[in-house]
Hints:
The protein is of the alpha/beta class. The chain contains 17 helices and 16 strands.
Amino acid sequence: MDSNNIIKIFDTTLRDGEQSPGASMNTEEKIQIALQLQRLGVDVIEAGFAAASPGDFDAIRRISEQIDKSTVCSLARCVEKDIKAAADSIALARHKRIHVFLATSPIHMEYKLKMKPDEVIKRAVQAVQYAKTFMEDVEFSCEDAGRSDINFLKEVLDAVIKAGALTLNIPDTVGYRLPNEIGARIKELSDFVNGRAIISVHNHNDLGLAVANSLAAVENGARQVECTINGLGERAGNAALEEIVMAIKTRQDVFAPLYTNINTKEIYPTSKLVSLITGIESQPNKAIVGKNAFAHESGIHQDGVLKNKETYEIIQPSDIGLDKNHLVLGKHSGRHAFKDRLHTLGYVLKDEELNEAFEKFKILADQKKEIFDDDLRALVAEEITKIPQVFELITLQLSDCNPGGVPNAAITIKHKEELITDAAIGNGTMDAVFKVIDRVCNVSGELRDYKVDALSQGKDALAKVIVKVAFDGGKPIIGHGLNVDTMYATAQAYIGALNSYMSMK
Ligand code: KIV
Ligand code: ZN
């Protein structure tokens, strides 16, 4: 394929996606998502905003150490200390990029930046020049380009190209534009830039048009698209990677010779991993990765699909790596079968991780007759994103949930090799569980969100619990629990959030 026709996929799940309310991830989780994005074949992984916090910096640094195919990108405002932090955070990456941004719309310049247009140009140029002292690959974004004057955009772009920017991003930051408008603006800017740099787009979804706008941009000269898995992102989210990629692939009659480097068979595993980690499930009717995306409910459709799949399916589930939710393994399955199935699902575990995951699988197989792919995915995600267990749940005993009774929870938690046992009563069993954990661990947690899902079929399905807890008045942190017993999974999730809190501290 001619590399002039590639549409670069720039994934910002770990940066803009993480700005989605409640989607914050710990470092181990970010690393696993980055590794999966690399497997998916994204060209650029925007790993975070290094100056935001030491935790963000550290996550980008650790991702940079492990990613060797995709370019690792770090975001910075047009401020020296941000740019320096961005450069330091990706110093170890094999392929690296600094992404600087500055707003160019009248409303942002007047009220947010309090800067005149010529000051904005000057600051943008200084920032790009400074970023270039660290590395060759520098991207510049005109924040709120969607509402910026097109002639001013041309002035800014011209100036930053001369300063050395290789990629020029045109974000529709507030998701305001319609596809025909985006198409026309990108065409005009692309003609103006005339091959001196790559034009990129970054569309938000406030009017539900982020994907349509991205495709219109591609048809008019954009050669990089910024997007996120499952369309995660600020407010209504960003353009969904899976939708853009599958539209380009499915409609080659329109887009050829353009293509992406994405291995579409990794789309479903990536989507699943992101929703397992963030606790944010896509809506069932979400295109490509929603639970119902390939379900045919009506008799007429079912009949048609049985006769010829193409009557009602424009994409085969296997194209995105969605095999049937196989009944895979049971308690008699050996380590080899387990490893083999994980391999088919795209997981390559280190020996130590594999051993621990296998131990957990055996325990699970004792509790649950049939183990499905979704059970395995959840089990492995728990294993590979594990952070240091400052507190570890050992046992949990509950009584009494009868009306009129006094619900209480007795717990044993391991902390620094010491086993601590205590009990508490509460308004309900869950309240009792949280109270006793707070007391044993000497914290004060405020539960902000609680979600439980059955992972697969059957009465004995694994319960996947996700909690969001704000400890000691801090920001909410996600915790996951996975067990055949919902209350045990709840305690695991709460302690998981606490361990994340400890590791961030
Ligand atoms: O939406 C936006 O404008 C952004 C920039 C930082 C690229 O996320
Ligand atoms: Zn954005």
